[in-house]
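Q: what sequence does this backbone want?
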């Protein structure tokens, strides 16, 4: 296997670095490997060697990392190397060919597999990329759990900024009874130079582009700053006419059919990329592709682009060295700085990478004012008024701060273990591979990387959470099948994929019993209750509040209400909170019974608002002016959909609830199915060629008649509704994704309709079962 892999690298003209050779040899020896080398030093090739060994042995390997964008990138890379039919992906939002021998997934997916199946999990090799996320305060536990529960799995832990790994490696050796090889190197294939600038940002960028030091990754720490900078840069001529023509050709027939799509199109045609979590996945992927083809000169991104995504960057430009850490604004941690700075200079593209840091804006402005004052004489010489630093959201940095971040070692990785209802449920799932039991939870806590005093607290917390699950009958105690006593398991009456992945999921399950199924508003009330346990999509809620305030102000002005009275009324306005009194009262009663509850309930109405008004995703984005953050809305809708499907028990799902779930699923399908489409294009037969391999039949979505017919109604009604308001762009998005329909063709076809009819009526009544006729006429063939 080693010989075959080396022959492949030679044929591909890849020269291995010493650290790569050492790591690959250790993998072929069957050891765990900790690979701590700089960004751009070829860690991905070592991961490929592990996948290769696994495939040769007929085993299964899993690649995992923190962000979905990197998962999808590695998924498509693996498809090219190993064949699309052998590679799967799972991110929570997207699941493609999940049972393939190579699986690319987020860390949380692998953590859930480990919790559910334990040592019987079908996972032989694991590559954990960006392993420094082990120390992340919210998500670090997902990196720890597989190390504790997969004793027969071999691990490759990779990062450029690890620090001391003693505790982790000693635990891994003890649990797996297998040696851990640590491979470290400080040698960067592409060296870096560092520069601190006190010139305005546009001047710094102009100089970098003039010196051919692009692509430049301009690091901002908010999505708003990214968008504003991209917009500002379109006023300058960054690319030549020939370069713009090359970009237009590369874009081809890519559809920019969401509200923010027009802006994205304008930016990329100017040679400017935008990359942050508020964008739809397809736009981020487009920016990555154009950058890989060398067509973008500037990429305005948040720090998420520093997490391993393969975008060739010559220069990293920090606009600031402070950011909000969730509680307060702080100077960047050394690890974060080194991760982002390490993106500069990529092997095969550059011989030198550059890291540039801008001085604070007020410092740059004051320097300019002083120079202007020094050059003035006589009557022109005036006293200058220096700018002060911002009062809030700012921590001062200078060149000394910059140099300290360059030379300091990354902070130590800290264990972030915690127990939750979701963890307990996953452990107790009665999977075919493993019998559950409370002892699994006790053993997991004993193995975790916390100090003894913390483990004691964790055991107390686990007992409280477990008792709460027993009291709500989500978990039940039953006799063992072999008669050897009793064991705990998840209630058999719940759906197979039942999950409590939200912190307050238990409150939702308990409170559902208090809703009246006979009430006409039952489905809407259930949606409101579900939304109340989800994280707030702050940008959406602020937009709702602004819209409500604007409407109130206009009404009060029309009524002649005085200004002071208008302002008093305005202070009372917030975003919509349906059933707020009921939700607050029931939550207070729930919290009184469960002292472990550590957060508050959050009533809101986003899904309910969309569903009640039957709005499309683009309409909703436009109405509230949240085009820059449409990806935030998409993630929220995805979380709401998963919670409705997995956390609301089947017994609580009436036909009206099923209808609401189908509405949401149909909307999510239309917003962005780019990853699924791209994978299908890899395995689909090209005209005149045989398919690459026989793929498993897709899931039969018609096997649940209620859900299937509700989904069909919403797919078709969305199309009819788009026609009724003459939104032909939205109508085109509803039609057969594999063969995009031109909106002009739809408009022309509809003109024939409107010559006979003055309007097309589409309303709430059309969504009922008696208005849409669905019949099965043959296997997999339906007439609607």
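A:
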């Amino acid at each position: 296997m080693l010989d075959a892999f080396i022959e492949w690298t030679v044929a591909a003209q890849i020269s291995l670095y010493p650290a790569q050779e050492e790591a690959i040899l250790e993998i072929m020896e069957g050891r765990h490997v900790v690979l701590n080398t700089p960004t751009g030093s070829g860690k991905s090739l070592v991961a490929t060697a592990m996948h290769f060994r696994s495939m040769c042995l007929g085993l299964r390997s899993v690649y995992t990392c923190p962000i979905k964008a990197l998962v999808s990138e590695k998924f498509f890379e693996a498809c090219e190397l190993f064949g699309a039919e052998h590679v799967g992906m799972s991110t929570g939002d997207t699941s493609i060919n999940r049972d393939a021998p190579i699986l690319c997934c987020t860390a949380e997916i692998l953590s859930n597999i480990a919790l559910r199946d334990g040592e019987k999990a079908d996972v032989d090799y694991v590559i954990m990329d960006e392993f420094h996320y082990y120390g992340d305060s919210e998500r670090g536990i997902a990196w720890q759990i597989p190390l504790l529960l997969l004793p027969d799995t071999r691990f490759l832990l990779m990062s450029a900024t690890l620090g001391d790994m003693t505790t982790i490696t000693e635990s891994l050796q003890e649990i797996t009874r297998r040696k851990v090889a640590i491979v470290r190197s400080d040698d960067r294939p592409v060296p870096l130079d560092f520069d601190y600038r006190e010139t305005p940002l546009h001047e710094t960028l102009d100089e970098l582009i003039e010196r051919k030091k692009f692509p430049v990754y301009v690091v901002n720490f908010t999505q708003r700053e990214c968008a504003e900078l991209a917009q500002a840069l379109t006023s300058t001529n960054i690319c030549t006419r020939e370069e713009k023509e090359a970009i237009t050709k590369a874009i081809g027939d890519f559809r920019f059919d969401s509200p923010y799509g027009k802006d994205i199109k304008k930016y990329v045609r100017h040679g400017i990329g935008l990359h942050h979590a508020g964008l739809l996945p397809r736009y981020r992927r487009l920016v990555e592709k154009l950058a890989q083809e060398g067509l973008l000169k500037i990429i305005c991104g948040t720090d998420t682009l520093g997490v391993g995504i393969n975008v060739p960057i010559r220069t990293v430009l920090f606009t600031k060295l402070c950011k909000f850490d969730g509680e307060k604004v702080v100077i960047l941690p050394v690890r974060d700085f080194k991760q982002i700075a390490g993106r500069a200079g990529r092997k095969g593209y550059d011989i030198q990478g550059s890291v540039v840091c801008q001085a604070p804006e007020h410092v740059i402005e004051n320097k300019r004012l002083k120079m202007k004052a020094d050059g003035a004489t006589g009557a022109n010489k005036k006293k200058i008024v220096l700018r002060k630093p911002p009062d809030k959201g700012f921590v001062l940095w200078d060149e000394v701060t910059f140099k300290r971040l360059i030379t300091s070692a990354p902070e130590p990785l800290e264990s972030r273990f915690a127990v939750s209802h979701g963890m307990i449920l996953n452990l107790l799932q009665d999977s075919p591979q493993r019998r559950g039991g409370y002892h699994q939870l006790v053993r997991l806590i004993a193995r975790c990387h916390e100090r003894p005093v913390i483990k004691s607290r964790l055991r107390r917390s686990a007992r409280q959470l477990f008792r709460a699950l027993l009291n709500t009958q989500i978990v039940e105690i039953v006799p063992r099948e072999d008669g050897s006593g009793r064991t705990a398991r998840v209630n058999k009456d719940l759906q197979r994929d039942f999950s409590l992945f939200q912190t307050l999921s238990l409150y939702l399950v308990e409170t559902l019993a208090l809703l009246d199924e006979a009430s006409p508003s039952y489905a809407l009330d259930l949606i409101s209750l579900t939304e109340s346990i989800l994280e707030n999509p702050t940008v959406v809620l602020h937009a709702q509040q602004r819209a409500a305030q604007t409407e109130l102000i206009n009404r009060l002005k029309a009524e002649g209400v005085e200004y002071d009275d208008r302002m008093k009324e305005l202070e009372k306005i917030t975003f919509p909170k349906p059933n707020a009194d009921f939700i607050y009262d029931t939550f207070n009663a729930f919290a009184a019974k469960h002292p472990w509850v550590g957060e508050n309930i959050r009533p809101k109405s986003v899904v309910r608002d969309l569903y009640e008004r039957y709005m499309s995703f683009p309409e909703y984005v436009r109405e509230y002016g949240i085009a820059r953050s449409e990806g935030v809305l998409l993630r929220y809708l995805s979380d709401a959909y998963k919670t409705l499907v997995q956390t609301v028990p089947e017994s609580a799902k009436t036909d009206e609830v099923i209808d609401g779930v189908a509405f949401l699923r149909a909307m999510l399908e239309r917003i962005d199915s780019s990853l699924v489409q791209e994978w299908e294009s890899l395995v689909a037969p090209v005209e005149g060629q045989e398919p690459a391999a026989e793929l498993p039949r897709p899931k039969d979505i018609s096997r649940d008649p209620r859900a299937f017919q509700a989904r069909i109604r919403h797919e078709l009604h969305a199309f009819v509704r788009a026609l009724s308001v003459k939104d032909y762009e939205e109508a085109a998005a509803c039609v057969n994704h594999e063969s995009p329909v031109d909106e002009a063709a739809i408009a022309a076809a509809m003109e024939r309709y409107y010559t006979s009819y003055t309007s097309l009526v589409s309303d709430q009544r059309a969504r009922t079962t008696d208005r849409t006729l669905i019949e099965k006429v043959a296997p997999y063939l339906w007439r609607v």
